[in-house]
């Protein structure tokens, strides 16, 4: 029994419009919600994720020469930089609470994978990458899957469950 | 580690105190106490300019939604401690009376739960709650922005980091 398998509570996939397209519980540990509540949660998280990106602190950059007393239009370069220049500004990545840890992974196309794990679970990044891989293989490559619609792919369910159970 | 900003919200969802520590550009030496810099910063990409006031509302909306989400999933006694993005970390502490303390720091900071608790116990209770001249509620931040509290907060942040 490894810590990794014990730690994963549930997975939620949110499409780029904020709609819930997949929800599955692997282990008890979190409260059960109704389907409606999960939909609300997905929508709320989608919004919060966008806000967390926009409240990123902006650090003013030293302007070599203050612009001569016009002050009307903004300079070509914005007058601030972000705390971690070079790293793209992201929304919420990890959320820690007393009882669980939420990891959010956003793909380049805006789909969000939310993984709820035990706070002590290690290598969540690896788990989420693998889930993304499985999603790409068994959902996106499924010719009958309609994009942005709820995921109902048996092969995805099966492989996901088997992989999570089989992790040693 | 760097502290970017600090907010207190009361139980009526009102921001009763906010404070920013914007790291000054290296060429300018001095105390970075003003929050005018971000107010004036024009944004290039068609975004409207946001003031600190709007920022505090966004921060409140975020922590409020996340807190409710966490309580729904983890149970009533669960509490959200912090979240991390690629650029900053937000720490959250809520007192039993629903006063919310929020602090934005850089990514390298450890858990600030204890620190926020200390700010509540040693500064907020001592200098704001126990102040006979301060009102029970703090509409518009009245009573919180007293000298003792601000000075001690400044010292606390500077000393701790």
From TrEMBL, chain A:
<dbReference type="InterPro" id="IPR011012">
    <property type="entry name" value="Longin-like_dom_sf"/>
</dbReference>
<keyword id="KW-0333">Golgi apparatus</keyword>
<keyword id="KW-0931">ER-Golgi transport</keyword>
<comment type="subunit">
    <text>Part of the multisubunit transport protein particle (TRAPP) complex.</text>
</comment>
<dbReference type="Pfam" id="PF04099">
    <property type="entry name" value="Sybindin"/>
</dbReference>
<keyword id="KW-0813">Transport</keyword>
<feature type="compositionally biased region" description="Low complexity">
    <location>
        <begin position="68"/>
        <end position="79"/>
    </location>
</feature>
<keyword id="KW-0256">Endoplasmic reticulum</keyword>
<feature type="region of interest" description="Disordered">
    <location>
        <begin position="59"/>
        <end position="80"/>
    </location>
</feature>
<dbReference type="InterPro" id="IPR007233">
    <property type="entry name" value="TRAPPC"/>
</dbReference>
<dbReference type="GO" id="GO:0005783">
    <property type="term" value="C:endoplasmic reticulum"/>
</dbReference>
<dbReference type="GO" id="GO:0006888">
    <property type="term" value="P:endoplasmic reticulum to Golgi vesicle-mediated transport"/>
</dbReference>
<protein>
    <recommendedName>
        <fullName>Trafficking protein particle complex subunit</fullName>
    </recommendedName>
</protein>
<dbReference type="GO" id="GO:0005794">
    <property type="term" value="C:Golgi apparatus"/>
</dbReference>
<dbReference type="GO" id="GO:0030008">
    <property type="term" value="C:TRAPP complex"/>
</dbReference>
<comment type="similarity">
    <text>Belongs to the TRAPP small subunits family. TRAPPC4 subfamily.</text>
</comment>
From TrEMBL, chain B:
<dbReference type="GO" id="GO:0005783">
    <property type="term" value="C:endoplasmic reticulum"/>
</dbReference>
<dbReference type="InterPro" id="IPR011012">
    <property type="entry name" value="Longin-like_dom_sf"/>
</dbReference>
<dbReference type="GO" id="GO:0006888">
    <property type="term" value="P:endoplasmic reticulum to Golgi vesicle-mediated transport"/>
</dbReference>
<keyword id="KW-0813">Transport</keyword>
<dbReference type="GO" id="GO:0005794">
    <property type="term" value="C:Golgi apparatus"/>
</dbReference>
<comment type="subunit">
    <text>Part of the multisubunit transport protein particle (TRAPP) complex.</text>
</comment>
<protein>
    <recommendedName>
        <fullName>Trafficking protein particle complex subunit</fullName>
    </recommendedName>
</protein>
<keyword id="KW-0256">Endoplasmic reticulum</keyword>
<dbReference type="Pfam" id="PF04099">
    <property type="entry name" value="Sybindin"/>
</dbReference>
<keyword id="KW-0931">ER-Golgi transport</keyword>
<dbReference type="GO" id="GO:0030008">
    <property type="term" value="C:TRAPP complex"/>
</dbReference>
<dbReference type="InterPro" id="IPR007233">
    <property type="entry name" value="TRAPPC"/>
</dbReference>
<comment type="similarity">
    <text>Belongs to the TRAPP small subunits family. BET5 subfamily.</text>
</comment>
<keyword id="KW-0333">Golgi apparatus</keyword>
């Amino acid at each position: 029994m490894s810590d990794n398998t014990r730690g994963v509570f549930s997975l939620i996939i949110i499409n780029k419009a904020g709609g819930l397209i997949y929800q599955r519980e692997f282990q008890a540990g979190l409260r059960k919600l109704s389907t409606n509540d999960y939909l609300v949660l997905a929508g709320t998280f989608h919004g919060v994720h966008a806000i967390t990106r926009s409240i990123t602190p902006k650090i003013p950059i030293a302007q070599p020469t203050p612009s001569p007393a016009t002050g009307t239009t903004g300079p070509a370069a914005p007058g601030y930089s972000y705390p971690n220049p070079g790293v793209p500004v992201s929304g919420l990545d990890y959320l820690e609470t007393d009882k669980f840890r939420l990891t959010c992974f956003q793909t380049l196309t805006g789909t969000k994978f939310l993984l709820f794990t035990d706070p002590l679970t290690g290598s969540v990044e690896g788990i989420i990458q693998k889930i993304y891989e499985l999603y790409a293989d068994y959902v996106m490559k499924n010719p009958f899957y309609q994009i942005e619609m709820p995921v109902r792919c048996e092969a995805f369910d099966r492989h996901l469950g088997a992989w999570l159970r089989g992790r040693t | 580690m760097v502290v970017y900003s600090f907010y207190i919200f009361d139980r009526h969802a009102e921001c009763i105190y906010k404070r920013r520590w914007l790291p000054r550009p290296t060429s300018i030496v001095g105390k970075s106490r003003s929050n005018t810099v971000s107010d004036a910063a024009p944004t290039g990409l068609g975004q409207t300019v946001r003031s600190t006031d709007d920022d505090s509302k966004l921060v409140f909306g975020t922590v409020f939604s996340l807190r409710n989400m966490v309580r729904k999933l983890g149970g009533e006694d669960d509490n959200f401690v912090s979240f991390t993005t690629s650029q900053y970390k937000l720490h959250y502490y809520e007192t039993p009376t629903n006063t919310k303390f929020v602090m934005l720091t850089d990514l390298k900071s450890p858990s600030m739960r204890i620190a926020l608790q200390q700010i509540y116990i040693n500064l907020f209770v001592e200098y704001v709650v126990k102040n006979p001249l301060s009102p029970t509620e703090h509409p518009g931040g009245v009573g919180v922005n007293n000298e003792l509290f601000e000075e001690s907060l400044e010292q606390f942040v500077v000393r701790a980091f």
